[in-house]
Write a structure and sequence with these properties.
By secondary structure, this protein is α/β, with parallel strands linked by helices. It has a domain at about 10-190 and about 225-255 and about 295-310: Rossmann fold (3-Layer(aba) Sandwich). It has 11 helices and 13 strands. The strands form 4 sheets. The protein has a 7-stranded parallel β-sheet with strand order 3-2-1-4-5-6-11, sandwiched between helices. Strand 2, helix 2 and strand 3 (about 60-65) form a beta-alpha-beta unit.
Length: about 325
Amino acid sequence: MEGVEVSHWKQTSVFVTGASGLLGSALCEELVARGASVTALVRDWVPQSRLLGTGVSARCNIVRGELEDFRTVLRALNEYEVDTVFHLGAQTIVGTASRSPLSTFEANIKGTWVLLEACRQLPRLVKRVLVASSDKAYGSHEKLPYQEDAPLVGRFPYDVSKSCADLICASYFHTYRLPVAITRCGNLYGGGDLNWNRLIPGTIRSVVRGERPIVRSDGSFVRDYFYVRDAVDAYLALAERLGEPKFHGEAFNFGTEEPKSVLEIVALLLAALGRSDLAPVILNEASHEIPRQYLDCAKARAWLDWRAQRTLAQGLAETIPWYRSALA
């Protein structure tokens, strides 16, 4: 983000769903810094979130409501004369999705069609729509890494919700020529993530407390881990090109291209925190998850001249101090 031309965003009216989440908070913070007028859709008031805790919310228009509420979304887009939409809002926890598929489908699938339909009804206002899909949308494939033309074959509730949302975006582009683009990222991490059941926040918290970290799976699952500040760069880079029709309806993988197993991530964190003596507790209880998945980001490099600026080690080195301070 350093040294990037900011004039594109000055006085641009931007709508961000999921604004109090990890990526949403970081994106709002950067958009405000670049001079954008940001309207944030917030369902739950979470004082510990970075959106509220850093004071960024005081520089945004806050709309309270749910993704699935068409009238709320349409009103916000219309009244704040929104030009650019970042649809990040979703139920993002795989375990929660397995326990409660209905609420996950409501938020992730209905929430997406509600947002896209509201944008479709305001063609004179809304010029750019970015929708956060996920690498989970691909489902399980023997051929890895995933490329953007791989079929979307989610099977478990969270994965299916993302496959469906992704396909709905494609439908709105092909049917209505909505100027939408889709992002498929690896597992996001960074300071401000308060979902302690996720691997990186949960492991850091356990180790800071002097406890052995908990691994729900057998530790062999392989994922991409993508630093949130690099994700913000990716979203903004894509949004800035959405004035070009060739980007409409396209999907882009974004990640570090450094796939690691769960146990490798835990070992990196234990070493960085100086507590390699705390051997992880392996529960081997995880179910309804894809064993191996990681991304090919060649399309983002070719179309956007984009690549992650930080390695996994660098991203973790920037992340750990935030949690040390927050947990102190």
